[in-house]
Fold these 2 entries.
Entry 1:
Amino acid sequence: MPAPHPPSSAPTSVPSSGADLPRAGTNPTRLVSLDVTRGLAVAAMLAVNNPGINPGHPGWLRHPEWNGFSVADLVFPLFLFCIGVSSTLSTRQRPGPGRSFMDAFGPMARRCAILFALGVGLSALKQHQLVFAGVLQHIAVTSLLAWFVLLLPRRAQYAVGVTILVAAAGFGLAWGFADGHTLDQAVDRFLYGRETAEGLPVAVVSVFNVLVGAWVGRWFRTGDHRRIVRSLTTWTLGALAVGVLLVPWIPINKRLWTPSYALVGAAGSAAITLAMYWLVDRRAIRRPLEWLRELGANPLAVYVACSALAALVPDRVRLAVVRAMADVVPLAVASVLWSVLWIVLAWVIADQLWRRRILIKL
């Protein structure tokens, strides 16, 4: 998708997100790569959540049924990671000089409440019933919990992050990780009447991934390129190693958001963030990725719009389109093309918002 216009046409409100162009002599914490990475996460979320046909969709774009890891499993941790980075780069999201606790908490609580309500609305649109556990509800709860943790002193934040993983590991080892018999699923059945991959236990553990993003954001605030690269590389390798070492006892499982999954997801998120930082902010390779930047400027608004539209498309229409494409290309390719259609639609919406200098904060 070619960029229709140069970055100079960016919305005037975008810098407030803490992710604008880092040019010489300006604030080094303004990262184009953060918007690009968020855009990549949104595009991937749409691809994973909108398969053309499940049996024919490539395995790497599907979540494992239980234990295991695929490319699709990187998507949600990456988005939460970006939320954390952004929270550190944007001083308006936390109390400080001239900004009281309520001045910061009010907008944050309002945004999370709106996001949660939109999630319930989307669930009602898709499932024709009110469901209080879903992707947007997960993001809302996790973001709010992480916001409170990030008010603590730095060492206390680290302690909370470690405690989350240790507690999740302890409960998991005590209850076991067999499908249908985990503590997470028991809590889900009590709270929601059914098992879900986006329930409260998962939202609590995934706070860790937002915290990691916030800690990484501090490295970006230094503007020290060598430190950023060295720290991100070290974190990626260290988190990946620990996550993999835990696998014999604690399986990688997205539905439970096990500690091994949280660590591997955080490692993958850091690696992708480092790659985007190197390409976009250091090597200035921006024009081919401009469409992702546009997606990343209004990530949740675009995701909500496309998810609502996808929920309105009858299954028979989706299957008819995919089968028509399967007459020309293999079924797996046709299924992916259906997902790509939603990414294109998302970019069209994002591009129109970008051209009109509209920034919708959710």
Entry 2:
Amino acid sequence: MGKTSVENFDAGKFRQIREAAGLSVTDLAKQSGISRGAISQWENGISTPSVARLTAVLAVLDSHASEVLDVVPTDFDLRTLRILSGLTRSDVATFLKLSESGWGDIERGTTPLSVARIEPLSKLLGTDQTTIVRAAQRTIDNNR
């Protein structure tokens, strides 16, 4: 899986949401601008989408990433929170005025999240500051 691919993607849930929306793979591809082949590979578990591509198709399906990711809220780390928000690593880095590699170090747990960045990150990700602090700690713990 590539660095930008979404982890814990549930292909079955994704297919159910597409079918419930009454769209064929071809229809979804046309409306989202994502290739039919890519969507088919996601649904068949051959590959997983990037955050940007997943966000594009979920917008067409009027759905949210949390509906197609198999994650438990207590397992959230910074990367998972970012993905659930439909943001790329670059989006977060730009918002926080960091280099992409600087945010990458924080997201991997090799550099701690500074206190000054907790509030803006919570606003960007649409969650409370306590969740950000816990996710940041979980990120560091997962790196050990």
